[in-house]
Amino acid sequence: MSTARPDRAPAADGAGLAVVAVDGPSGSGKSSVSRGVARELGLRYLDTGAMYRAATWAVLRDGVPLDDPAAVARAASGVVIEVSDHPDESWVHVDGSDVSRAIREQAVTGAVSAVAAVAEVRALLVEQQRAAVRAAAAAGQGIVVEGRDIGSVVLPDADLKVWLVADPAVRAARRAAEDVAAGRISPAEADAAVEAVRADLARRDAADAGRAASPTAQAPDAVVVDASELGLAEVIAAVVDLVRERTAA
Q1: Domain that includes residue 151, residue range
Q2: Are the C-beta atoms of residues 216 and 10 closer than 8 Å to each other?
Q3: Does residue 244 belong to any structural domain of this protein?
Q4: Average pLDDT over the chain, rounded to whole?
Q5: 80 occurs within a structural domain
Q6: How confident is the model over 39-57, as a mean pLDDT?
Q7: 20 has which bridge partners?
Q8: Are 155 and 22 in contact (CB under 8 A)?
Q9: d(CA 1, CA 11)
Q10: Domain containing residue 66: CATH number
Q11: How does DSSP assign 40-68, residue by residue?
C-alpha cells in the first residue's frame, strides 16, 4: 500500500519505535504537525485523509453516483492506492497514476465525506492503514498516523494519541493560506476565501462527526493539543515531548 525510504533511522532514545495517532478536525494542522514529528523522531508517516481522497478521486473518475453506497463500495474495492510513508514526500498514486494534486481539488474535497461515510470503504482502508503500521514495525520503525478516527478506531493501542484542535477562524485562515501556497487560489482571493473555507470546514466536521461508520471522535485517552495560538514549530515540539515521555524506558 505504501512505499518506505530505506534511510530512515529511528531516534536513539527509543521514540523511533513509537506508534503515534494524531486526530482532529480538518484544518487543525494535523498533516504539518505529523510530518514534523515523524521527521524529528525518524518515524514513518501516513496521511489517511489522502487515502480517502484517493478513493474519492477514483469514484469520481468512474462516474459512480455518490448517493449509491453499494456502487461506491464496489468501485473503491477495485482501486490500488499507494501513498508515501516518508515525511519529506507527499505522493499519492491511484492505479499507477500520480494523483497527488488532483485529490486536493474542490471536486474531491466536496465529495470525500460522502465516500468516507461508506462502511465498506472505511473497512477496506482501515485494514490498509493497519498494514502500514505492521510494515513499519517489521522494519524496526515507528510511525505517525494522522486522520479523524485513528486513536478511536484504527489504532486504539497507539503509544500516544493526540487530539489536535484549533479555533475555527484559525483553521479557515490556515486552509486558505495552504490553497494560496498550492496555487489553487490567488493571494488576492485569500481574504474572500476564508469565509467560504470556514463554511466548508464546518460542513465537513458535521458530516464526519455524524456518519454511522467510525465517526470522528476524540479517544478517551487522547491528549488535547490546542494549536490556536501556537506556531507550527511549537506544536511539533510539544508532541515530540509527549512521544518521548510515553516511550521513555
Answers
A1: 2-234
A2: no
A3: no
A4: 88
A5: yes
A6: 97
A7: 144, 160
A8: no
A9: 25
A10: 3.40.50.300
A11: HHT-EEEEHHHHHHHHHHHHHHTT--TT-
* Amino acid, res. 179: D
The residues pairing with 160 across neighbouring beta strands, listed in sequence order, are 20
Q: Which three cell numbers stand for residue 77?
A: 474495492
Please give the grid coordinates belonging to residue 44: 514513518
Q: What is the dihedral of CA 140, 15, 144, 242, to 10 degrees?
A: 160
Single-letter amino acid, residue 62: D
In a domain, 78, yes or no: yes
| Strand, coil or helix: 21 | strand
Give the length of the chain: 249
**Alpha helical stretches, state H, 105-248:** 106-116, 119-138, 168-181, 190-210, 232-247
The enclosing H or E element of 32 equals helix 30-41
Strands 44-47, 97-98: parallel, antiparallel or unpaired by DSSP? unpaired
- Whether 111 and 66 have beta carbons less than 8 Å apart is answered as yes
**Under 8 Å CB-to-CB from 99, ≥6 apart: which residues?**
54, 57, 92, 93
User: Looking at the domain assignment, is residue 240 inside a domain?
Assistant: no
Q: pLDDT-derived band of residue 239, with 50, 70 and 90 as boundaries?
A: very high
Cα-flanking dihedrals φ and ψ of residue 110, to 5°? -75, -20
Structurally, how many domains does the chain consist of? Answer: 1
Are residues 129 and 46 in contact, defined by beta-carbon separation less than 8 angstroms? yes
- Beta-carbon contacts of 135 under 8 Å, excluding residues fewer than 6 positions away, are 2, 4
The pTM assigned to this predicted structure is 0.82
pLDDT tens digits, 127-161: 999 999 999 999 999 999 999 999 999 999 999 99
